[in-house]
Design goal:
It contains 19 helices and ten strands. With 438 residues, the chain is α/β, with parallel strands linked by helices. Helix 8 packs antiparallel against helix 9.
Length: 438
């Protein structure tokens, strides 16, 4: 009977660790945890739960830490998890035949990353509606799947590579084949975090990525990873273009280079980058949607509508995509159908600000000022409004003209943002005119 170990590194993981280790109960013959400096009760808890814990000094190198933990494993096979991950319950019956397969040295394992919105894609992968029966996952509206080598034979040739975004996959490729695909899931909850936590993580990963590039200067993946966490659009673009140069068939790098070009207003360069990516991956829904965005920016609304419709066929239909399609339909002269699509998108995902913005823009462009005013006020009610939302709603009312309502909205805005100079200036300008209009 072949044996399996769970190998992990952790720090201050007391909240997540019990559920993680419970998910491998009856599956893992051995649990080895490398603690990299916990200040909570992670170590005592891990030992109570049956793990063998070793202390690993943290040196800003995930691969080194994982390899030190890996060196303590004694089983035939190794499963790698993080504390914020869970092994799917169905894995228990699916693992034995995988371990018995003499042709395989390692397996790509699907990892289900739970996210807070259908608009939270990862790299070039769109989010999918979540219908997981796993109790811990049921509260999340969406997920994105990706794969990584998480199950592999204990073999001196197989170890983690990369200071950050470390993987065993590189060593599997370098030492020759035997890579299969597992038919079970790992559930990951670490991406469903608030923006502040994600920002702090990105800054830390940026520092590690810079070190990784110094160690692996010709690695396209390393440059791409740095681009994802760079702090300026220009710096990100530079990283993605370096990745494209090092690996011309790197689809994701072409996609993100196109995104950065678009943010910088370089629409022709964006079109070229997305087109290069599209040749490599003709069924990639993010590429077709991105092409639609650039065509819309260029004023080619027919091609924009064509790409948005193609995107609907390639991936999940999202409210954001449908609202873009509705806007393109309006620009192409199909006003009723476009407005209906825009309003339907808002009904399906009311709390998404961009959906309200597109309806407001469409109504203003169509010179339907009363409808624009109603849409602007609906946004104030349906989402947590920003200062600019009150300014825009007041501006639309002022153009009707309905100066008294414009003044009321500015006063409501000032009650939310009492330090806003823009709201104060706008109210000082409109209020006297509103009083005269009575």
């Amino acid at each position: 009977m072949l044996t399996l170990a769970l190998s992990m590194i952790v720090r201050d993981a007391a909240l997540d660790l019990p559920a993680c280790l419970e998910s491998v109960r009856g599956v893992a013959d051995e649990i080895v945890i490398g603690d990299t400096g916990s200040a909570d009760n992670t170590v005592d808890l891990a030992r109570t739960l049956g793990a063998r814990v070793i202390s690993i000094p943290w040196e800003n190198d995930f691969a080194r830490a994982r390899n030190l933990a890996l060196a303590e494993v004694h089983t035939d096979w190794v499963l790698s998890l993080d504390a914020d991950e869970r092994l799917d319950p169905g894995a228990a019956r699916r693992l034995p035949p995988l371990l018995d397969d003499k042709k395989s040295r390692a397996y790509q394992v699907p990892i289900r990353n739970y996210v807070l919105s259908l608009n939270n894609g990862i790299w070039d992968r769109p989010a999918m509606p979540n219908r997981s029966p796993l109790p811990e996952a049921m509260k999340y509206p969406a997920y994105v799947d990706h794969e990584n080598v998480r199950l592999f034979r204990r073999d001196p040739q197989l170890y983690f590579v990369g200071r950050v975004h470390e993987t065993v996959g590189i060593r599997v490729q370098e030492t020759g084949g035997g890579l299969g695909r597992a038919d079970f899931l790992i559930h990951h909850f670490g991406l469903a975090v608030d923006p502040q936590t994600q920002h702090r993580k990105n800054l830390y990963y940026r520092e590690l990525s810079l070190q990784k590039i110094r160690e692996m200067p010709h690695n396209a993946q390393a440059h791409f990873e740095l681009g994802l966490v760079e702090t300026s659009v220009e710096s990100s673009l530079h990283c993605f273009e370096l990745a494209c140069g090092l690996k011309p068939d790197f689809t994701q790098a072409w996609i993100f280079a196109g995104m950065m070009h678009r943010k910088l207003g370089r629409l022709q360069q964006a079109l070229e980058a997305f087109s290069r990516g599209g040749k490599l991956a003709p069924t990639n829904s993010l590429i077709s949607e991105s092409l639609g965005d650039v065509y819309y920016d260029l004023g080619n609304f027919q091609l924009a509508e064509k790409e948005y419709r193609r995107t609907r066929k390639l991936g999940p239909v999202r409210a954001s995509l449908d609202s873009k399609l509705g806007l393109a339909q309006i620009r192409n002269g199909r006003t009723a159908a476009g407005l209906a699509r825009l309003r339907k998108a808002i009904v399906s995902e009311t709390g998404l600000a961009e959906l309200h913005d597109r309806l407001i823009v469409a109504c203003v462009w169509l010179n339907r000022q009363h409808e624009a005013a109603a849409a602007a006020e609906e946004k104030l009610v349906q989402i947590e409004p920003a200062e600019k939302d009150f300014l825009r709603a007041a501006s639309i009312h002022a153009q009707l003209p309905d100066l008294s309502r414009a003044a009321e909205l500015l006063k409501i805005g000032l009650s939310r943002f009492p330090q806003s100079e823009k709201l104060s200036v706008a109210l000082a300008e409109i209020e006297p005119r509103a009083t005269k209009s009575y």
